[in-house]
Design a protein that fits this description.
- By secondary structure, the chain is an alpha/beta fold.
- Strand 23, helix 6 and strand 24 (284-288) form a beta-alpha-beta unit.
């Protein structure tokens, strides 16, 4: 005969004061019932340390983002949602399901599953979020049961290598970082193709598009960024794509098999990589850029011109400066129109005009956001039990779209989630490499300089080498290298350390090997 668990009325909701507890006898057991705001929790009233029924008389509060009750005897803390003893999980108590109906508090006779480990839910299966999980798993005594919600129907992969994949230099299997077996072997619950759509910070639950709910003690938001879609007529036509994920790559590869002309809108890092890859797929490619300088955030005008000349020799075409006003076509894109009324015929339009942090879910949950989800130096949001990393965050007024700072954030976040030591993320020194075979390009820091700076410049037109090192107060502030990038890491090291390079000034432009010679 199947046993049916019943609900028992414990007391009136209004009889229980906020932030307090009361004991009730349910089916012969003493249950401690707590009210925190409008939320109701129920635990065994029995304190395993003191062996007394006293938890209902404990102080209710928040401990490092967890709702807890402190035992009035030995002051051990018990998580109100799970019953876990913060100080010693072996002494955890049972938590009981609750509900409020008709103004009364009801307790179910079947306890919640007791767990000695806390629950971590990760929203986002990308590089930043999974780097946090990887580092957590590498820490002895990993304290979390991990659940991951991913929007894409494939496991975690290296987005940096989407360009080589589009160029035909890599296959998808080559860029997978964590195959399905990795999640299973490490006990990570993975929901693929099922993005999270709601966060309930009161009940500490995440709900997915398919209706799956997951409770959390800690939540990690790693929702990444969204590509900027130009608000022009025709932006929704078939044949107009962005360049952010695997589906975009597959769409472009299919277009390259059946069509010949492509327009890439955006002369930044991602746009040039997409354009070069489509050129390798046999398409006639035109890069459209709003400004006169390619990669203006990473290059000075001289290096940008050298890059443009090199790409033109490969077969790329450029239309710049140019402002896109419309995408033409009926059943499919047929052309792109500009402010000067010129038109370029095309079968494919790739929008690579930039990205914006994806803050939609965080905003809907009431977390503080500006351009990105606001985080402190420990990667915590306004809610101390909710962390965020990656392209979705804003830290010290900066947002990041490169992998190096995202991994630095992940390392700090994992340290704090595991409670194994402390660390702070203070921001990152950005450096850029263009992933186009045969073109060596590097930039970092303030490569343009200001009134108080000076620039050391080397240009060898015959060898196609250009170097610009910006100095201020005898310290390296920025660097642009084209044609010879071997010393990029060294210049970054000098910038990060703030080293005085006065004694190396005359040799600095020639690189580390020459500068270190006595």
């Amino acid at each position: 005969m199947k046993h049916t668990h019943t609900w028992s009325s414990a007391c009136s909701f209004d009889d229980l004061l906020p932030d307090s507890g009361v004991a009730a006898l349910i089916d012969g057991r003493q249950i401690a019932i707590f009210r925190v705001g409008d939320a109701i929790y129920a635990l065994d009233n029995y304190d395993p340390h003191s062996e007394a029924n006293v938890l209902s008389r404990g102080l209710v509060g928040d401990l490092n983002g967890e709702p807890v009750v402190a035992s009035p005897v030995y002051k051990h803390h018990f998580n109100l949602a799970t019953g876990r003893c913060v100080e010693d999980a072996d002494y955890s108590v049972r938590a009981w399901p609750t509900r409020v109906t008709d103004g009364k508090i009801w307790i179910k006779s079947q306890p919640l599953r007791k767990t000695s480990r806390r629950k971590l839910v990760v929203i986002g299966n990308g590089m930043a979020g999974m780097k946090v999980v990887e580092e957590l798993l590498g820490i002895s005594g990993q304290p979390y049961d991990v659940t991951v919600f991913g929007a894409e129907p494939v496991p975690n992969y290296n987005r940096i290598l989407l360009s080589p994949m589009l160029a035909g230099e890599k296959r998808f299997d080559d860029i997978v970082l964590n195959p399905i077996e990795w999640y299973r072997d490490n006990g990570v619950t993975l929901h693929l193709g099922d993005p999270a759509v709601a966060i309930d910070r009161i009940r500490r639950r995440v709900r997915s598009q398919n209706g799956t709910e997951a409770e959390y003690d800690r939540l990690l938001i790693a929702t990444g960024s969204n590509p900027i879609i130009l608000p022009v007529p025709g932006k929704d036509l078939p044949g107009v794509v962005t360049f952010r994920d695997l589906q975009d790559v597959n769409t472009m590869l299919e277009a390259a098999r059946t069509h010949k002309k492509a327009v890439v809108i955006g002369g930044g890092l991602l746009g040039l990589e997409a354009a070069n890859a489509l050129l390798k797929q046999g398409m006639q490619v035109t890069v459209v850029h709003l400004l006169e300088t390619l990669m203006e955030r990473q290059l000075d005008p001289v290096a940008a011109q050298l890059l443009k000349q090199s790409l033109e020799k490969r077969g790329l075409r450029f239309h710049m400066p140019a402002k896109t006003t419309a995408i033409l076509g009926t059943d499919r894109v047929r052309g792109v129109q500009f402010a000067d009324e010129t038109i370029i015929e095309t079968d494919l339009v790739v929008m690579a005009a930039g990205i914006r942090p994806n803050t939609d879910l965080a905003r809907a949950a009431g977390l503080r956001c500006d351009r990105g989800v606001l985080v402190n130096d420990t990667m915590q949001t306004f809610d101390p039990c909710v962390y965020a990393v990656g392209e979705c965050v804003q830290h010290r007024n900066n947002t990041y779209g490169l992998v190096a700072p995202l991994y630095e954030q992940a390392s700090v976040c994992a340290t704090h989630l595991s409670e194994h030591g402390v660390g702070r993320y203070r921001g990152s020194m950005l450096s850029t490499h263009l992933k186009v075979t045969g073109i060596d390009l590097f930039s970092a820091g303030d490569f343009l300089g200001g009134p108080g700076s000076e620039a050391l410049v080397l240009r060898d037109a015959k060898r196609g080498i250009y170097k610009r090192i910006v100095l201020e107060d005898n310290k390296v502030r920025g660097a642009v290298l084209y044609g010879d990038t071997r010393d990029g890491a060294w210049y970054c090291e000098l910038m990060n350390e703030g080293r005085d390079v006065g004694a190396l000034r005359d040799k600095l432009i020639f690189g580390e090997a020459v500068a270190r010679r006595q």
